Amino acid sequence: MQTQKIKDKIKAIAENIYGEVVSYRRHLHSHPELSFEEKETALYVQARLTEWGIPFQKDFSGHGVVGIIQGKPGGKTIALRADMDALPVQELNETEYKSLNPGIMHACGHDVHTSSLLGTAYILQQLKEEWEGSIKLIFQPAEEKVPGGASLMIKDGVLHNPKVESIYGQHVQPFIDCGKIGIRAGKYMASADELYLTIKGKGGHGAQPQHCIDPIIIAASVLTTLQTVISRNADPRSPSVLTFGKIAGGTLNNIIPDEVYLEGTFRAMNETWRFKAHEIMRNIITSVTESMGGTADFEIRKGYPVLFNDETLTNATQTLIEMYAGKENVIQLDLWMAAEDFAFYTHEIPGCFYRLGTRNTERGIIHGLHSAKFDIDEEALRLSTGLMAWIAINQAAGKENSGLI
Prior knowledge:
Structural class: alpha/beta
CATH topology of the largest domain: Aminopeptidase
Strand content: 25-35%
Distance between the termini: 12 Å
Radius of gyration: 24 Å
Number of domains: 2
CATH class of the largest domain: Alpha Beta
CATH architecture of the largest domain: 3-Layer(aba) Sandwich
């Protein structure tokens, strides 16, 4: 298999199907479905795979779809992953493909990921006599909701039968210009745990605080003291974030309530520190609350782990991206404290999660992920499908077999 020849074929097919991939994306964008509810999206994916003669397993960990494309004998089994779920966001864009489902929107670009992987699947199927190995196509449900569809698919065996040796994910990034790709080897995205805290006191009249145990004052002390979890316990060389974004309690200005409810998030870039911080938080909440006469119910819902891009795999992938898209179009990413359930895969096998630029300032396509005005420059779909096919063909063949990298 000659490098330039196969690359030219991939680019030609990607260009030919560009209009179709745009139509896939627009259909999916118009018909978003929430986590664990992706029934119609899964059926749409299944229809395309059936049309192209790609075998698949449906209803995997809910509405997941897992396809397999066999190349020539030899090589490795690798996996490509796209997530399918949308967010509970009311879209504010006025486009011909805007969401038709009230209160639901593909505000994180999963419509792009799914349509791109469909395009990639078509390319791989058309060229399967020209590459070695096997490629799994993982159309995953429920990335946006704990415990995360990735963890469920892993539990149900998605990385086996056949055994997957490495996995690749592509995610839109609206802060990178269309036509460019972002990548980072090593630790890239943070763990994310959900915090739920109820502080209980004794309510009563606001003019008689001596007869009450004020949970609002306790909550204030707890929140202030919790700031020392990071400032006085974390290694400053490893970033962490502790944020409480919701607090609720009370009914009137002269009534001390019985309890106050809080919700927060904890992010970290180190798994050992992550769980040590859990214990520190528990101890602070218990000691501060009890010292002020109250009690607390504290729940930590463990979310996604740190996303780690295998350094050897990611460096090889970066070389492939530079060969396909041009070295000038590859950007080194910073650490990002957002979370992604692709991280679960990277704790099982070597993985690489990279970013697809979708920003176009001149056209006003500038809004961030999870925004009600998020959109993409669809020119990114010219690059996304062929690039992932190029990466997959090379990595499935293996460096020692293909001679391409």
